[in-house]
Amino acid sequence: MEDFGVIPLTGDNSIQALKIPAPLACYWLGESETTSAGGS
Questions:
Q1: Digits of tens for pLDDT over the chain (40 positions)?
Q2: Residue-number span of the structural domain to which 27 is assigned
Q3: pTM for the complete prediction?
Q4: C-alpha of 22 from chain center
Q5: Where are the beta strands (DSSP E) in the chain?
Q6: Number of domains in the chain
Q7: Coil, helix or strand at residue 22
């Protein structure tokens, strides 16, 4: 669970990013591409 979280990108925390493991991010991106390509 330490691989997930929110990290600040600026000193005042006005901009934040979601931290997720790279293999999971790649899986989600690939899944969304195959799902959207199948519907066309």
A1: 788 999 999 999 899 999 999 999 999 999 988 888 765 5
A2: 5-38
A3: 0.54
A4: 8
A5: 5-8, 16-19
A6: 1
A7: helix
Minimal CA–CA distance to 17: which of 27, 26, 7, 25? 7
| Integer angstrom CA distances of residue 27 from 9, 31, 35 | 24, 6, 12
Q: 1-34: string of b/e by CB count within 10 Å (b at 16+)?
A: eeeeeeeeeeeeeeeeeeeeeeeeeeeeeeeeee
Residue 24: what residue type? Answer: L
* Cα gap 4→11, rounded to integer Å: 20
Place of tokens 């690939």: 30
Q: From CA 23, how far away is CA 25, in angstroms rounded? A: 5
